[in-house]
Amino acid sequence: MRIKKHPVLSSIVEKTEVEFIFEGKMLKGYEGEPIAAALHENGVRVLRHDHRPRGFFCAIGNCSSCLMEVNGEPNVRVCVEELRDGMVINMQEGKGKLKGGEE
Ligand code: FES
Predict the structure, then answer these.
(1) pTM here?
(2) Which of 18, 41, 52, 96 is the most exposed place for a label (fewest CB within 10 A)?
């Protein structure tokens, strides 16, 4: 659910719609919004697994609850990472796979 009207904020500017891939599925969001916000708008609440499902916790980049793999890079905090057109986003298990094969 997105806030379209707000009693205090006089205008909420619509942003450019972009497409991104999540777990092999094409989804849409707004350019520059946090990746986690775009995922939530598309019904995705579980962002990763670490012995149990994890979702939003702090939402300000201070914990590790929302770490995901973005464009092949693990451990990206998607609550503060801006969405861009064509991004490829995947859930990760635990610490994720680092480039070069080390976990
Ligand atoms: S939810 Fe805490 S860093 Fe993203």
Answers:
(1) 0.86
(2) 52
